[in-house]
């Protein structure tokens, strides 16, 4: 295994070059001394041979502490636009029947660090709230639902809001709980009965 590490906040870098055999460590390069460390007795002969090839060990050190770091920085930069992007959610209020819980459904957002809360008269609700987890969509975005169990008389007499906050986006996405905002199919089917 050959690789490197870079902390983009502190600038600290490190590298490694090591071998394993049969699921266990076998031998690794000490970058400070440019000598090999035998992890098991069977690696001692290899260590002695590889320690004598100092130019090759210097080449390995240069690769894991310089070239590898340069490549790592380049790959991080390539991914930054995708990894650091933000996508705002689409927020809907859903209800199956007039007395079933009201679901606040946020979808299409990125990243997946999101807070979906219900507020009553400006205060966060914790009772009668069931929080789902953020789930992936097929397009690389995410979705999350939070249910509020509340009687229609209650939400008609108080101001209920679903508030969605996505990490990296300053704006809050708010849906007021009103009859006009609730998406349901029970209104169309009640005329059948």
Description:
- With 193 residues, the protein is of the alpha+beta class.
- It folds into two domains: 2-83, MHC class I-like antigen recognition-like (Murine Class I Major Histocompatibility Complex, H2-DB, Chain A, domain 1, 2-Layer Sandwich), CATH 3.30.500.10; 90-184, Immunoglobulin-like (Sandwich), CATH 2.60.40.10.
- It has helices at residues 44-51, 54-83, 152-157, 186-189; strands at 2-6, 13-21, 24-30, 35-38, 90-94, 102-109, 114-120, 123-124, 129-131, 135-136, 142-148, 160-166, 173-176, 182-183.
- The strands form three sheets. Strands 5, 6, 9, 10, 11 and 14 form a six-stranded mixed sheet that branches. The protein has a four-stranded antiparallel sheet with strand order 1-2-3-4, covered by helices on one side.
- The longest helix is centred in the middle third of the chain and has 30 residues, at 54-83.
- The chain is elongated and about 85 Å long.
- The protein starts with a strand and ends with a helix.
- Residues 189-193 have low confidence and may be disordered.
Question: For this structure, what is the CATH class of the largest domain?
Answer: Mainly Beta
CATH homologous superfamily heading of the largest domain:
Immunoglobulins
Secondary-structure content class: alpha+beta
Overall number of structural domains:
2
Question: What would the principal axes of the Cα set say about the shape?
Answer: elongated
Q: In terms of per-residue confidence, which ranges show pLDDT below 50 for 5 or more consecutive residues?
A: 189-193
Report mean pLDDT, rounded to a whole number. Answer: 92
